[in-house]
Write a structure and sequence with these properties.
The chain has 468 residues and is of the alpha+beta class. The chain has 13 helices and 28 strands.
């Protein structure tokens, strides 16, 4: 065979290059070695990926006032259901991952939220009732448990998501659109995505492996067969995959699983008691920084471990344990994946000087008794659970560390469903300033023809008037 001189020259240059020299040369020993395939990885990981089915009851109004009339009941029968709410069943489909052979399964919180009947179907089509050990709305993760006597289930080992690099090959395994277990491949498209808006902790792995509805809670695995993410969301205008999918890193999953295994049922996260801001190009220029990076401390709670370690308002946190911090969301993730009681090295900038200190992570303190109270009676807050704000309650609700007063911790039913949201801070009732749950209960006592309330919602003061 003869080569064109130009082709021969190019081939010789390639063979002499460092790239070619770095390649191992070996004669394939079998037909399987000739054909590249992900099959060996799939065989070890796919059996640990399950389908999760959840049902919840939603009330649905009949919507026809004529059925309340006795005249119509005479002709259409009266079984006692006319005009009453009728239950509607909402089905939810997702995926899950067995992370312990005893039957411990991780999935997304939004797959099982408020579910009354949750079933898990294994890859071999066996079906089991699942018990919810823990749900965490802030990370959008949930941990389930199924009982399979005298058997160890296939499980996937949790890998180190911090070891991932952009360009790494990954596989996504789940049950898209309910068609059955499906494996797709792709690469890590980006790391530390913070503008997704799915959970409180914005630090996602982005992949172009096809992820579709039904994949939620499924596995994202690396080429070692390790779990490195839980598939959670997609960016799509049509509802189908366009190559932009997001997964929760396993280093966050690991903290939630550890809490579930402890049996406490309550997730206690490290707290730094700081209000943070991203460093913008303008801020970076004004501070003489080479580029925008880090998280700017806007304010600190007096009990903050950062305060005790010597940090101040205006300092810029640049790294934790040697890991660079690009923005406030990344700092929140790094803190959340650190153990309470651990001492970590924090690097920061103050007035152009680079400094570092040791910070011991603590749980958010409950400086005042929370006094959880379910509001009832003829008032617009009936059906809401309210609590006194402390750093612990503020942290649970995603509110600033220095928040004070009374917050809506949960909205269960009643009139509160129409007017209030979790995290609303009640400021005034009929002109009376509200600072404690006791003060709120007294202000809501008795009947009023008109209720005037002021509340803080997402940093904005909202005033509403509600008539009885």
């Amino acid at each position: 065979m003869r080569f064109h001189p130009a082709v021969l020259s190019a081939l010789l240059l390639f063979l002499a290059s460092p790239f070619a020299a770095a390649q191992e040369k070996a004669v394939p020993e079998s037909s399987a070695a000739v054909q590249m395939s992900f099959a060996p990885i799939v065989k070890t990981t796919a059996p640990a990926v399950v389908n999760v089915y959840s049902q919840r009851q939603l009330p649905q109004q009949q919507g026809n006032r004529f059925f309340d009339d006795p005249f119509f009941r005479r002709f259409f029968g009266d079984d006692g259901t006319f005009g009453r709410p009728r239950e509607r069943v909402l089905n939810s489909l997702g995926s899950g991952v067995v992370v312990d052979p005893s039957g411990l399964i991780v999935t997304n919180n939004h797959v099982v939220a408020n579910g009354t009947d949750i079933k898990v179907v294994l890859a071999d089509k066996r079906e089991f009732e699942a018990k919810v050990l823990l749900t965490d709305e802030r990370t959008d993760l949930a941990v389930l448990k199924i009982e399979v006597p005298d058997e160890k289930l296939p499980a996937i080992t949790l890998g180190d998501s911090d070891a991932l690099e952009v360009g790494d090959l990954v596989l996504a395994i789940g049950n898209p659109f309910g068609v059955g277990q499906t494996v797709t491949s792709g690469i890590v498209s980006a790391l530390a995505r913070t503008q997704v808006g799915v959970t409180d902790y914005q630090f996602f792995i982005q992949t172009d492996a096809a992820i579709n509805p039904g994949n939620s809670g499924g596995a994202l695995v690396n080429m070692k067969g390790e779990l490195i993410g839980i598939n959670t969301a997609i960016f799509s205008r049509s509802g189908g995959s366009i190559g932009i999918g997001f997964a929760i890193p396993t280093n966050m999953v690991r903290t939630v699983v550890a809490t579930a295994e402890s049996g406490s049922g309550l997730i206690r996260r490290p707290w730094i008691g700081a209000e943070l801001q991203d460093v913008t190009p303008d801020i970076a220029t004004s501070l003489g920084m080479a580029r925008p990076e880090g998280a700017l401390i806007v304010s600190l709670h007096p009990e903050s471990p950062l305060t005790k370690a010597g940090l101040k308002r205006g300092d810029i946190i640049l790294a934790i344990e040697g890991r660079p911090i690009e923005n406030a969301q990344e700092l929140g993730y790094r803190v959340a994946t650190t153990a309470i009681g651990a001492t970590t090295i924090v690097e920061y900038q103050r007035k152009g000087d680079h400094k570092e200190t040791q910070v011991t992570m603590v749980a958010a303190p409950e400086t005042v008794k929370r006094d959880d109270t379910l509001i009832d009676g003829p008032n617009p807050l009936a059906g809401a659970v309210v609590a006194n704000l402390s750093p612990a309650v503020a942290d649970e609700l995603g509110l600033p560390a220095n928040s004070k007063g009374v917050a809506v911790a949960k909205v269960q039913d009643g009139p509160a469903q129409r007017f209030f949201r979790r995290g609303d801070v009640i400021l005034e009732v009929n002109g009376e300033k509200i600072e404690t749950v006791d003060a709120l209960s007294k202000a809501l006592a008795g009947e009023q023809s008109l209720w005037r309330l002021a509340l803080n919602r997402g940093g904005r003061v909202v005033k509403i008037a509600i008539g009885n």
